[in-house]
TrEMBL record:
Domain of life assignment: Bacteria
Annotated InterPro entries: CoA-trans_III_biosynth/detox, CoA-Trfase_fam_III, CoA-Trfase_III_dom3_sf, CoA-Trfase_III_dom_1_sf
Gene3D superfamilies, per the entry: Crotonobetainyl-coa:carnitine coa-transferase, domain 1 (3.40.50.10540), formyl-coa transferase, domain 3 (3.30.1540.10)
GO molecular function: catalytic activity
Protein name: Carnitine dehydratase
SUPFAM superfamilies for this protein: CoA-transferase family III (CaiB/BaiF)
Length: 470
């Protein structure tokens, strides 16, 4: 149960607990592990660096175990908490031909900000995409100007506005305390679930790892995810050799910076549901696919015959990874949401700035990255189980549950937090030639002694490749 009391902290104990929860333990001592630096690395009461480093380290243990199963070789891994923290800001550090592509520059007044409602509470509205922006402005009956939005919000009760916005499929969340959230039906449902939920869907013969130059050589991932957390699952797997094909509808809008950050190391193809030719090609793709990643609203793809169960029936041995904001079941399962909203509902924003003056974590985002890395961890754990005992598997992760897991690490002493820098130290960037131009971006965080993490492919324009495996 969450407590805001400052507690003793052991990063290795929390790593061991996470590994045990996904069935890895220390994965047969397949690696030797070390951490560098310690929180607070930025002025936040939350253990941002440790949370990110723990998940990256757990994912690295999975990589090491697969490498041992392939080659009988072990290796050492090192995770620097400072670099782990810096990875949370990678979205905002990307430059293309020395020009920034930070998507926040284009959000506008209703793009993503806190606002106070008539009952004195705070709500966060996300109108980053045109269809969300237009619906929110219509609901509020105001102009897309700060003063007009402020006046309109004061006419609403916070919880009623939250419900009304989500009824229109517009992302919105009221700031809650951690205790309020865990007493909420959705928060309570999440509290009863592990941070990474792995379920066996059916039985198959084992699929052992064959010889390969890299830990994930020969593993094919269909990335049917959108925005950031979902694409980060497959981006993380591509660091160690997985072949990834990102699928996206030709009708969906994209924010360039988000697309660039989430889709390094992949090919990209258009895939439109309802297009008979595309769906036939998808069936051919699925026959040779190991992992599918889905991050759309709960039920969106399932209604079209693309649920985890449907896909596993068509492709026995499949690993299906699903991410959303609030969890795959429960009263809020079908609500869309973003990182900022998961910080608001879970109590992170209230802890960061106070209930009367909430704010997001200093890195702005946290749960997109945690959930993406956790999804990759779950996929690796499921692949290892498939190699040993066979089966198809469902892996489920959510942004809000990731927040709750980070809270359960405990808070930092206030004196230490006040002495920490306001912002994360700037990371070293790598430079990559892409079809867009010369891209500077944050590279992989984890250091491996034998299987260096790197992306074989640069980010590709949306739809640049055929709907087929190489």
């Amino acid at each position: 149960m969450f407590t805001d009391a400052v507690s003793e902290f052991s990063i290795t104990d929390h790593l061991d607990q996470l590994l045990q929860s996904v069935g890895l333990g220390r994965a047969g001592a397949a690696c030797q592990l070390s951490f560098a630096h310690a929180d607070p690395l930025v002025r936040s009461p939350h253990r941002l660096g440790a949370a990110t480093a723990i998940v990256l380290a757990a994912q690295a243990v999975g990589i090491c175990e697969i490498w041992r199963m392939r080659t009988k070789r072990t290796q050492t891994i090192a995770v620097d908490l400072a670099k782990a923290l810096q990875s949370l800001t990678s979205l905002y550090l990307i430059t293309m031909n020395d020009h920034a592509v930070d998507y926040r520059m284009h959000l506008g007044p209703i793009g993503g900000h806190f606002g106070q409602t008539g009952d004195g509470r705070w709500i966060f509205l996300v109108g980053a995409y045109p269809h969300h922006r237009d619906k929110l402005l219509s609901l509020l009956r105001c102009w897309n100007e700060p003063e007009s939005i402020r006046d309109a919000l004061l006419k609403w009760n916070s919880l009623e506005l939250e419900d009304a916005a989500n009824e229109l499929k517009c992302p919105a969340a009221v700031v809650r305390s951690a205790e309020e959230w865990r007493a909420h039906p959705q928060g309570g449902w999440l509290q009863a679930k592990p941070v990474v939920e792995i379920r066996k869907l059916n039985d198959t013969a084992p699929v052992p790892f064959d010889a390969g130059q890299r830990p994930l050589s020969g593993i094919r991932v269909l990335d049917m995810a959108y925005v950031l957390a979902g694409p980060l699952v497959s981006r993380t797997m591509s660091e160690q050799g997985a072949e990834v094909l990102h699928l996206q509808s030709s009708m969906l809008p994209d924010l360039l910076g988000i697309y660039l950050d989430g889709n390094v190391g992949k090919r990209s193809a258009f895939f439109d549901l309802g297009n008979g030719e595309d769906e036939a090609k998808f069936g051919e793709l699925l026959e040779r696919t190991d992992v599918v990643v889905d991050s759309y609203r709960a039920g969106s793809l399932a209604r079209r015959g693309y649920s985890a169960e449907d896909l596993a029936a068509r492709r026995p041995g499949l690993i299906h990874v699903y991410l959303n904001c609030y969890g795959a079941e429960g009263p809020w399962a079908a609500r869309g949401g973003f990182d900022q909203l998961s910080q608001c509902v879970s109590g992170v924003a209230a802890t960061e700035g106070g209930f009367a003056t909430p704010r997001l974590v200093p890195t702005y985002l946290i749960n997109d990255y945690l959930a993406g890395y956790l999804g990759a961890l779950g996929a690796l754990a499921a692949l290892i189980r498939r190699a040993r005992e066979g089966g198809s598997y469902s892996v489920r992760v959510s942004l809000a549950r990731s927040s709750m897991w980070m809270q359960d690490l405990g808070l930092l002493p206030g004196g230490q937090v006040r002495q920490a820098p306001e912002r994360a130290a700037p990371p070293d960037l790598i430079s990559t030639a892409t079809p867009f131009g010369r891209m500077q971006h944050v590279g992989p965080v984890t250091a491996y002694s034998d299987t260096r993490a790197y992306w074989e492919l640069p980010v590709a324009p949306v739809g640049a490749h055929p709907l087929a495996w190489t």
